[in-house]
Sequence to fold (171 residues):
Amino acid sequence: MSEKNPAEANTSSGVASATTTTTGADSNGGAGKSGELQDAAAVVEGVALDSARLIPVAQDEATNSYSMLEPRMKKVYGAYYKELYYTPERRILDPKVQELISIAASLVAKCDGCIDGHMKKALALGATKEEISETICIAAAINAAAMIDLSDRTAERLGLNHFPSKPPAKG
Fold:
């Protein structure tokens, strides 16, 4: 088994290199002898990506997640998730950057499980406390801007202008 340190996947340009771990003879990523697909992010997360699994699942955690999705929809979601997070040869963003974006999106979406998983992965990929703090602040700013946008549209629909930026025209 050849393993590369996930931190080696980081580049100064923020573009991911194709850091891959394989089981078996295939050193280009993809499937090894066991049919297990691996890359740096999957190794850090401890996720099994064998082709038999419908959705990537941490190897050391039992889960009831996705129990409401029928198998064909699990397969569609799992394929999308694997393509996005665990296909290094087609990845544009560095895995750590992907995880920081995922933290921000998870916060805005209010997905507890997502936040936990992406926070663990970001830390394992070397995210600093400052990077995580900035990520959280960006999510907070986006969420605040969304509230302003929603209230602006409501005010427009209802003809409200409680605190006008310009004083009313004298007439």
About this structure: The chain is about 45% helix and 0% strand. The first strand starts at residue 47 and ends at 48.
